[in-house]
């Protein structure tokens, strides 16, 4: 059953129409609740023909950038006031991470020993950089700025897994723990990341296995990517005598990574 239908009777009346809330919608900064049609109309009315990036909540006057609606417990929709506004939140690092995801499936090996991570039970150690890393990765993959709902959902799954293993002890094999973790995170991430979910979980394992902070992990990824790119370029050059058969998007990746150094 959809979230909007189950909570409708429990919510206060919509502050705009004063009727029971229809199609529950939240503002992304203050989280005040309105009918989706009411707050959408309000935002258009307030904005007029101005190309603003935000509008004030009619209740608390907090500046908000988007309207969140259609939340089912697994997914949601997000309407930005200015559709181009979300791009301003995304840095060059976000863009590199997105490109990295788009090509990392071609790389034969990961950076870090994930098997050792599970074998030595290092998954029980708290990672203080995980929330920030998750937020950055989800922003890059979704091309959305406001991803805290998704970030907290996935981070909660990781925390839940760790707590269950602390209580359970070391009954399961490393392979069983790894498979259970992956299935849990794949199910948690798929409604939001869709076709990118498996690569995201692969990267999450790599980040956790690394034990590095975000900056050091990014540096390792850049070096690994540059080396892998150079090797693939040489292989293609030997096979066809030129780079004409290489995916132009992949060539752009090599060029961008070289410029970054």
Give the oligomer, counting copies of the same chain as homo and different chains as hetero: single chain
Structural class: alpha+beta
Return the average pLDDT rounded to an integer. Answer: 79
Q: Give the count of helical stretches.
A: 10
End-to-end distance: 51 Å
Number of strands: 6
Radius of gyration: 22 Å
In sequence order, what are the helices and strands, one letter per element?
HEEHEEEEHHHHHHHH
Q: Beta fraction of the residues?
A: 5-15%
Question: How many independent structural domains?
Answer: 2
Map the helices and strands.
Layout: H1 3-7, E1 24-27, E2 33-35, H2 36-47, E3 55-56, E4 63-64, E5 66-69, E6 77-80, H3 92-103, H4 114-119, H5 130-142, H6 148-168, H7 174-193, H8 197-210, H9 214-240, H10 248-260
Short summary:
It comes from Dioscorea zingiberensis. It contains ten helices and six strands.
Characterize the structure shown.
- By secondary structure, this protein is α+β, with helices and mostly antiparallel strands.
- The chain has 2 domains: 3-86, Zinc/RING finger domain, C3HC4 (zinc finger) (Herpes Virus-1), CATH 3.30.40; 92-260, no CATH class.
- It has helices at residues 3-7, 36-47, 92-103, 114-119, 130-142, 148-168, 174-193, 197-210, 214-240, 248-260, and strands at 24-27, 33-35, 55-56, 63-64, 66-69, 77-80.
- A 4-stranded antiparallel β-sheet has the order 2-1-5-6. A two-stranded antiparallel sheet has the order 3-4.
- Helix 3 (92-103) crosses helix 10 (248-260) and helix 5 (130-142) packs across helix 6 (148-168).
